[in-house]
Amino acid sequence: MRAVAVLALLAAGASAAVTPIGDIVQHRDDWANRTVTIEGTVAAPSLGYAADALYNVQGSDDFRVTVAGKGPAPAVGAKVVVTGTVRRKPPDEEFDFPPVIEETSRQTP
């Protein structure tokens, strides 16, 4: 029984800290090329084509970020926890591109 409790504590400590989506959106250069874990609700649009998915996740802070992933796109309204790398195209003289998270894992709690 004690071994089970120790394993549960280790698993809880190993889980990644959740990064607020607003922080990623507002400080996009700071998060570029870093691995993050976000959580939120899938917002429209949520599109899937072949084995690829492109969808938006809205956090509890009301900010949204686009996620590019593999597999079927999650349904709008679904709760998700996504881990991935923040990708950032440098701004040009006309447009400051938003960050996109390249998904490495997705869970539906």
Quick take:
It is built from 3 helices and 5 strands; from the N terminus they run H-H-H-E-E-E-E-E.
Defining traits:
109 residues, alpha+beta, OB fold (Dihydrolipoamide Acetyltransferase, E2P), 5-stranded mixed beta barrel, 3 helices, 42% strand, globular, disordered N terminus
Give a verbal description of the structure.
A hairpin with a 2-residue loop joins β1 (35-49) and β2. The protein has helices spanning 2-14, 21-26, 28-31; strands at 35-49, 52-58, 64-70, 79-87, 100-107. It has a five-stranded mixed beta barrel. The chain starts with a helix and ends with a strand. It has 109 residues and is an alpha+beta fold. It has three helices and five strands. It has one domain: Nucleic acid-binding proteins (OB fold (Dihydrolipoamide Acetyltransferase, E2P)), CATH 2.40.50.140. The protein is 21% helix and 42% strand. The chain is globular, with a radius of gyration of 16 Å.
Write the layout of secondary structure elements.
Elements: H1 2-14, H2 21-26, H3 28-31, E1 35-49, E2 52-58, E3 64-70, E4 79-87, E5 100-107
CATH topology: OB fold (Dihydrolipoamide Acetyltransferase, E2P)
Q: Which outline best applies?
A: globular
Number of helices: 3
Mean residue pLDDT: 89
Assembly state of the chains shown: single chain
Distance between the termini: 26 Å
- As for the number of domains, it is 1
Number of strands: 5
Q: Ranges with pLDDT <50 over ≥5 residues?
A: 3-14
Strand coverage percent: 35-45%
The profile of the biggest β sheet is:
5 strands, mixed, barrel
Question: What is the CATH superfamily?
Answer: Nucleic acid-binding proteins
